[in-house]
Structure formats: C-alpha cells, structure tokens
Amino acid sequence: MARLGAKARAQLPDSAFAYIDSQGRRRLPIHDAAHVRNALSRFSQVAFEDEAARDRARSRLLRASKKHGIMPIGFISAQLQPRLKLPTGHVTFLLTDIEDSTGLLTRLGDRYSALLADIRRLVRDAVRHAEGHVVDARGDEVLAVFEHASAALEAALTIQRASRGRDWPEASTVRLRIGLHGGRPELTQTGYVGLSVHAAARICFAAHGGQIVMSGAVRHELGDALADGVRLRSLGVWQFRGLPEPLAMFQADAPDAPTDFPPLRSALGLSS
Prior knowledge:
Blueprint: H1 6-11, E1 17-20, E2 26-29, H2 33-42, H3 51-67, H4 73-84, E3 91-98, H5 101-108, H6 112-129, E4 133-138, E5 141-146, H7 149-165, E6 176-183, E7 186-188, E8 191-193, H8 195-206, E9 212-215, H9 216-222, E10 231-240, E11 247-253, E12 267-271
Parallel strand pairs: 6-9
Antiparallel strand pairs: 1-2, 3-5, 3-6, 4-5, 7-8, 9-11, 10-11, 10-12
C-alpha cells in the first residue's frame, strides 16, 4: 500500500475517512481498497471518543468494504466480541443526560461539540473506574451498565462531583441528570433489549440537573453498601409514561452536593 502523504491526505474529502472525531481529526482513510484493508486491520487500535463514534466509523468502513468488493468476515466477528463481554443476568443501568442542552448549544455554537466530548470523557472515565461498561452514547445521553448497583452508584457520585468541579467554557453551568435502574434485559448483538432499558431512560429524564435518582430495585440491591456520608432518600411512588407498573423512587444525597430539587419531571406522583 502506497504511503498517504500529508498533501494527498489533505486533498481527500471527509467521506474518504471512516472516523472523524469531535475536533475534526480524520482517521482511517478508506478511499481505495488497500486503505480499506488497512483500516480493517487497524480499527481495534483506534481510541474512539465513545461507542456512538465507533458505530459510525464501523458503518462507514463496512460500506467502503462492500464498495471495493472486500468481505470483512474476520472484522465483523471481532467487532461482535465486545458485546459478548458485557454483563448478563441482573444488571444495573446508569443513564446520563445534559440539562438544557439546547440552551448550551445556542450559547456555545461550534464549541458545543468540544464540550460534549469533554462530558462524555468525564462519564466514560467514571464508569470505567467503577468497572462498568459504556454501552451507548447518542446525542447528549450516555448509557452504561454495571454488574452491581454499588458500582453504578459510585460512578454516578463521581460523575456529579467531577461535573461540579469542572471549569466549563464561558463560565457555562453544566448539570447532568442521572438515573439508575436494575433488571434482567436480553443482550443481543446490537446491545441490550428489554423494559429495564426503557425504564432507565424514563427515570433519567424525570430527574433534574445535578440529581441522582434510582428505582426501588436499585435501592434494594444497595442495602447498606453506601459510601461515607451518602444517604438515600425516598421520593415516593411514581408512574412513568409507558411503564406498566409504578416505581418507588429514591434520591442519592452526597456531602457537599445539592439535595433540594423540584418534584420529578414527566411522571405522576402517587404517594410520598
């Protein structure tokens, strides 16, 4: 394969690369058959910003392979292996979302993509430190999974602590909503499928920026396994849109963190 020089590389359009990160850096050229084969062999060595970026790059690379008549059987098999390493059985989901992301985008303009990448790194680092797995990242949301509820709560506390201590661009206030829920979803080749995934999303979106909320299932699994100073406060029973049964909800309160929030959003309180 002929080496791609800087001048020739600069003349290629963005569509000639499988991966373009949030800073505009272009990786894995796929403009001819030789470079497609090289990209297939090097794909696993690239440090993608998140799973969504990996998925987009994978799709571009597979389309380029088809265009050049390359059958990437080994590549496809290798890409399916990480899914097999995700935990099965009873797991705990953690979902984060940015409060008022539209307002942030309006204020920051082109700089919002860099802020979003910074937030995703913050979340990803906390998840990995707690031995969890980032499953998906789409738009302003990040979904992670843990074998144990205590690890999910540890990651949630770390995320909120780190976001409060960060100096954001233009003195912007960045607040993350975090929801925790447990269940027994099905793990397929494309990710987790089940009501517990949808419930985790409903719980996250009902929270307010800076808040950590969890279902009774997570609270039950946690038991007394709490870090020093962390308390779990009952928020009552709530009915979420699309879920068949109401859920008992709890809030995680940590030292030196906000604890006073309005009632949950997008849900109907049934008792306190």
